[in-house]
Amino acid sequence: MKLSSIISDGMVIQRNKQVTISGNTKHFQKVCLTFLEKSYETTSDSNGDWSINLENLEPGGPYHMEIVAEEKIVIQDILIGDVWVLGGQSNMQLPINRTLDLFSDEIKDANEPFIRQFSVPQNYNFHKPEQYLVGGTWTSATHPDVMNFSAVGYFFAKELYEKYCVPIGLIQTAVGGTPIEAWISEKTLRKIGGYDADLDYCKNDFHIAEKKRSDEERHDLWYKNLNAKDPGLKDISWYDSTMNVDDWDEFEIPNSWKDSNLENIRGSVWFRKEFNLPSSMLENEAKLVLGTIIDADETYINGTCIGTTGYKYPPRRYLIPEGLLKSGTNSITVRVISTQTTGGFVKGMPYKLIANGKELNLQGTWKYRIGAITETLEPPTFFQYKPAGVYNGMIAPLGNYCMKGVLWYQGESNTQHPKGYSRLFNALMNDWRENWKSDAVPFIYTQLANFETSDTNPDEANWAVLREEQRLALNTSNTAMAVAIDIGEYNDLHPQDKKTLGKRLALGAINKAYHEDIVYSGPQYKRMEHIGNSIHLSFDHVGSGLTARDGNLKYFTICGTDGKFVPANAFLRDNKVIVSHEQIKDPCHVRYAWLDNPEGANLYNKEGLPASPFTTESK
Question: Which residues of the chain have pLDDT under 50?
Fold first, then answer.
């Protein structure tokens, strides 16, 4: 008997819809299924495939299911409720354990056995859509498993469960770094055009295997050479607590290596700080907080390694084993490994030691010494990023698994080429709805949060362009978009406030999937009127009224016939925004929050939901 791994203990199945349970057994084999004291029978076809439909399932549980063919399978602890697919890249995948700076107190008491998550194993297939999932288990939002839940998914599910008291199942399919084309079918991509070369190349399993092998060898050789050349790993190791660093140079942390003599170094640089710890901080658990480091690090306390991180995005939060700290002088040593880009300790992040409810600030002057200098380590080929691969391996096999709707958070990996994203997103929604055989599947998605990039020219603000493409996707039926430009972090691609985002996504779901008439969106640009020397903007989703949070309206720009946008005067009147500039007598277009990081943009409705960035140039 072969079942998709999602049909397993602890699963959540969709209420009030036709639910299909399918599998594979011997050909022309009788299959009996028993669930909720009802029995169903069918016979497998010539390929051994079979399916049975369950209908009119009311929420509840836990229940068990028996399937009997040439063998008997019993599936335990089944809940009936609402199932949501979590799609996208790393901000959807981001686990709760990466948000504990904000939510540690809330999560320590998390006990939600009726919220469950199935993490689809990361898998790609470039030949055909998979039929079955292999691997993965259902887990409940209780300790310790809740720490690995999608943070967005958890807070979204918590909102819905508290409102409807119905079990919530989350199917986590997101994969960090994936562009949208990885989640679209080959058939659709070939119609769109521009992907044929990649699609054809990835069908050669030998080429993929060779490329993966050579990438792994190159990676291992780079680190082997680095470690062999690094004097900090020889004789008296530089992380040793007895190491004398009086003759090391000084560096202010946090800081980038840019504009310093470290700027062009690829390799290892050692950083050291000594600090005095009072005896009152030796009790209970201690934690070292080192912001975010570019790229990799190995971190030591008093000569003992307490943590390593292999790439730049995760926040460094290392627990310090009991007994390692001592009263008086202690040392921290951080070996920073810069592989591809200019290294650094990211500014605006916390750098401190936390122990027994007290904090010790670690910012300021550190000692440093260059370890080994190498060439740049080029990144490997991530085949999970290639077109159609994860669609075939992770979405297609969910086709028979009935669900309530989709949450989508993706786009960062398409910001280099943002134009046309809305077309790709529409294609994705059509593909997924076809996969689930329903053109009514709700898509509730996140618009990119604010994030500081190197683009300071609004005309080159790729994140702003992609947000506009996301806004335009609202023209597709049964969609809702959560705006996130006020809950990002300018210095972190993975902002931690997934609770606010989860609540906003839940509002979209309450309207689109649960059909409640509520204010679920912030203001959305509707149309403009030229009146005299000004442009009057009208909006949808004004709720009980438009408002400017914390002062006058910000981030409105206007252009005349020359197409050059300049900061504008903007104010509210009768739930419209009036925009003008004293030197522009014939205004043509307006933009709002048209920056990669429009931090402080302040047009909201009175329900507290932020307006989406927009340009009136869009057709």
Answer: none
Instruction: Output the pLDDT for position 456.
Output: 65
CB-CB contact of 195 with 201 (8 Å): no
Q: Which two tokens stand for residue 349?
A: 């992040």
At 226-253, the pLDDT tens digits run: 999 999 999 889 999 999 999 999 999 9
- Give the residue from 406, 419, 417, 416 showing the smallest Cα distance to 446: 406
Element at 189 (helix H, strand E): helix 186-192
The pLDDT of residue 236: 87
Residues in Cβ contact with 331 at an 8 Å cutoff, skipping those fewer than 6 apart: 241, 272, 273, 274, 275, 300, 301, 302, 303
> In one letter, which amino acid is 225?
N
Q: Which residue has the tokens 């709700």?
A: 442
Please, how many CA atoms are within 13 Å of residue 605, restricted to the half-sphere of its CB?
20
The Cα-based distances of 13 to 98, 116, 314, 375, 510 in angstroms read 28, 11, 33, 52, 19
Q: Tens of pLDDT along 540-599?
A: 999 999 999 999 999 999 999 999 999 999 999 999 999 999 999 999 999 999 999 999
Angle of the 462-472 helix axis to the 421-435 helix axis, nearest 10: 40
Domains contained in the chain, CATH given: 80-193+386-512 (3.40.50.1110), 231-373 (2.60.120.260), 524-615 (2.40.10)
Cβ-based neighbours of 402, under 8 Å, separated by 6 or more: 13, 14, 17, 18, 19, 20, 83, 436
| pLDDT of amino acid 455 | 64
Q: Give yes or no for a contact between 67 and 1, defined as CB atoms under 8 angstroms apart.
A: yes
Q: Are the beta carbons of 110 and 117 closer than 8 angstroms? A: no
Six-digit token pair at 333? Answer: 């040593």
CB 383 within 8 Å of CB 202: yes
Comparing CA positions, the residue from 425, 410, 417 lying closest to residue 462 is 417
Q: What is the torsional sign of CA 355, 361, 363, 366? A: negative
Is 604 in contact with 611 (CB distance < 8 Å)? Answer: yes
In a 3-state reduction of DSSP, which class is residue 523? Answer: coil
pTM of the model: 0.96
In angstroms, how far is the first alpha carbon of the chain from the final one?
A: 54
Predicted local distance difference test score (pLDDT) of residue 283: 82
